[in-house]
């Protein structure tokens, strides 16, 4: 009986939380990188580096970002409003070491 109550409580708790998919996060990073790198969408490439850290490169430059507040809301639209893509490094020329 206790297992049923715990399972039900967990189901109710997690049913109210929504998180962005990996692809959704990458699309938000791409939008930010287009601006920061002054580069077209076709030339921007994004890779996941760590749990909430992404690298973007394009037009001979690269930069890293962290995502914040992209989980735990009750709807996807709330997350899209609150999710922040924060530059985590200066933009660097890729040909300079």
What attributes does this structure have?
3 helices; 97 residues; 32% strand; alpha+beta; two-stranded antiparallel ribbon
Question: Please, could you describe this protein's structure?
Answer:
This protein is 37% helix and 32% strand. It has helices spanning 2-15, 22-36, 76-82, and strands spanning 18-19, 45-50, 53-58, 61-68, 71-73, 84-87, 92-93. With 97 residues, it is an alpha+beta fold. It is built from 3 helices and 7 strands, in the order H-E-H-E-E-E-E-H-E-E. Strand 3 (53-58) and strand 4 form a beta hairpin. The strands form 2 sheets. Strands 2, 3, 4, 6 and 7 form a 5-stranded antiparallel sheet that branches. Strands 1-5 form a two-stranded antiparallel sheet. The protein has one domain. It starts with a helix and ends with a strand.
Structural class from helices and strands?
alpha+beta
Number of contiguous helices? 3
When the domains are counted, the total is 1
Residue fraction in strands: 25-35%
Order of helices and strands: HEHEEEEHEE
Instruction: Let me know the largest β-sheet.
Output: 5 strands, antiparallel
Which of globular, elongated, flat, extended, rod-shaped describes the shape? elongated
Poorly predicted residue ranges: 8-14
Straight-line distance between termini: 62 Å
State Rg: 18 Å
What percent of residues adopt helix (DSSP H or I)? Answer: 25-40%
- Count of extended strands: 7
Mean residue pLDDT: 83
């Amino acid at each position: 009986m206790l297992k049923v109550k715990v399972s039900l409580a967990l189901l109710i708790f997690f049913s109210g939380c929504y998180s962005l998919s990996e692809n959704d996060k990458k699309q938000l990073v791409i939008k930010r990188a287009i601006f920061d790198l002054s580069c077209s969408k076709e030339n921007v490439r994004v890779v996941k580096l760590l749990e909430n850290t992404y690298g973007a490169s394009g037009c001979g430059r690269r930069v890293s970002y962290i995502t914040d507040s992209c989980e735990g809301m009750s709807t996807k639209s709330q997350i899209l409003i609150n999710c922040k893509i924060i530059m985590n490094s200066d933009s660097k020329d890729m040909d300079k070491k």
